[in-house]
Every structure is written in C-alpha cells, then in structure tokens.
Specification:
mainly beta, twelve-stranded antiparallel beta barrel, three-stranded antiparallel beta sheet, globular
C-alpha cells in the first residue's frame, strides 16, 4: 500500500511561468509555480497488493482520487494542499471463510511548502534545487468498524496522527528532455496505540520528447515518454512498544509512462512495477500501482 503511506509523492504538478512542461508522474519536481498562479492536479491511483506469503491469502486493493492545489506565494516559494478520496478493501481468509474489510471516504490532508534554494539558467536549459517541508493532519476517519470489529489500521482512511515530511528535489531541464531526482523522508507518530513505520524514499525520473522530434513554429503540444525509478524503505510498524516483524522493508519500482503536454495542461498515465521487494516476515507484497490524471495551471 505504498501509494497511500506516502501520498506526498504525487506533487509532480509544478509549472514554469504559466507554461506546462513535462514533469515526474510519481513524485515532485523543482520547477516553480509562477507568483500568484495556481496549479490544480487530479490523479487516479489504483494500488493492488495480493502477493501474500501468509496462509491468510490477503488481497488489498486501494482506489484513490488525489486532489492537489498549488499556489505560487512568491517567485521561489510555493504552497501545496493534498487531499485524497480513498476506497480501501481487504479480502482475507478467516475461520475457513473469506472475509472483507473496507472503508471509503476522504483521507488525511497534507500541506507542503517548497522553496527554490538554487537555480542556474542558460539558453535552452535550467537547473534548480528545492527543499520542501510539510505536515499531514489527521482529517481522515481512523475509527471505522464493521461486523468483525475495528477495521485494521492499513484499511482505515486516516492514521489519526500528525506526521511530518521533508526532503529535497532537483530538476535539470532542456528543450528535449528533463531529469528529476528527489530524496524524501516521512516521520510518522503514534495514534490509537499504533504507529506506521517511517518511510525514506529516493526517486529519479527521465522524460524525453518523443513528438515532435524537431521543434518548430506552430507546434501546439508535445508527447513525452517517461521512465522513473522509486526506491522506498519503510521501517517496521509498531503496536505499542512492540515492532511488528511482518511489516516494513524495501521496494524498488520501475515506472514507465506517457505525458501529453500543452501550454496550459497535461494528460498523463503510468504504471509502477515492483522489480525488487525485500520485505520483512509475511508483509504483503505489491502487484502494481496504476496512475492516471491531468494537471492544469492558471
């Protein structure tokens, strides 16, 4: 359920001076939001996890609509709000029968600030470095119950905790291609006697203009091929003072995608494929994560 334990990675919705450029699909970019301008992004995410090494034969599916609104406070500083609407479902074997646990609704709200600390501009290229800090507020329901009792923490819409996140992102952009990289860390706190493990992530993205191959006057749009890598390490969850031996670990995703880019908006789609999953104990493994959506600047 990586996509929803670190939702802040979906903030790749940032654009330069009112013009849409290619950007990572699964994480952030250092390109700025123009002063006084807005960026609106909607992303559909489908996260499937059914590779269960335990006898419970667990199958977890999470569908989400992630809404992002960014505002350029100054030329270098931007604020972002992220609010997900989630549909979570867990199917598993219990007592010789198949049981379903689920919940639907709005999740936890995140607010993030990002500052351009360094930039180097030259004809046909730019390089920028931007640190960011944020907080996740416990706005999502975290006490859902069904006929079997309290729904497990990974199926709850919210964590019930105030959590902090931060990192740095760098972007190198030319007229033909763009390279982005991000290092981030999310520190989770305890709520209801449970704490999700802290998450460290290293991401990289390469976006290459597939069409048109030669730039010229009158071209209204561009098609980019995107290839991304996401390396994610999650610490073990804790129940009270005890670490859960069947949680946490390291996953490496390879994420191909496509983007159709115009002056004001972008359409995009991609899939995150786990190529390495070194998880602890009987932690549930991921099958894939689908991402599709649009972003508009105004």
């Amino acid at each position: 359920m990586k996509a929803f334990s670190s939702l802040f990675i979906v903030l790749a919705a940032l654009n330069v001076v009112g013009v849409a450029w290619s950007a990572p699909i699964t994480f952030n970019t250092a390109l700025p939001v123009h002063e006084g301008g807005f960026v609106w992004r909607e992303q559909l995410v489908y996260d499937k996890n059914s590779r269960d090494p335990s006898p419970a034969n667990r199958d977890v599916r999470v569908s989400g609509l992630i809404s992002v609104l960014g505002y350029g406070v100054t030329r270098d500083f931007a604020l972002f709000g992220v609010l997900p609407y989630l549909d979570k479902r867990l199917d598993m074997d219990m007592g010789g029968q198949r049981a379903t646990r689920s919940d639907q609704g709005f999740g936890d709200l995140m607010v993030i600030g990002r500052y351009t600390a360094y930039e180097s501009n030259a004809p046909r290229r730019t390089f920028r470095v931007a640190p960011f800090l944020g907080v996740k507020a416990p706005t999502g329901r975290d006490n859902a119950q069904d006929h079997l009792g309290r729904v497990p923490a990974p199926v709850q819409l919210g964590t019930g905790s105030w959590d902090a996140l931060g990192g740095v992102v760098a972007t190198y952009q030319t007229l033909d291609y763009q390279i982005d990289s991000q290092l981030s860390y999310k520190a989770n706190s305890e709520a209801n006697g449970f704490r999700f493990g802290n998450v460290a992530e290293l991401d990289a993205s390469f976006q290459y203009r597939l069409w048109p191959q030669t730039l010229g006057g009158g071209v209204p749009a561009f098609l980019y091929g995107v290839l991304e890598v996401n390396l994610i390490h999650a610490e073990r969850n804790r129940i009270g003072d005890v670490a859960d031996p069947n949680s946490g670990g390291t996953t490496l995703f390879l994420s191909p995608g496509l983007q159709y880019v115009t002056k004001k908006w972008i359409l995009e789609a991609g899939v995150q494929i786990p190529v390495v999953q070194n998880l602890n104990g009987t932690a549930l493994k991921n099958d894939y994560i689908l991402n599709a959506g649009f972003r508009i600047n105004f």
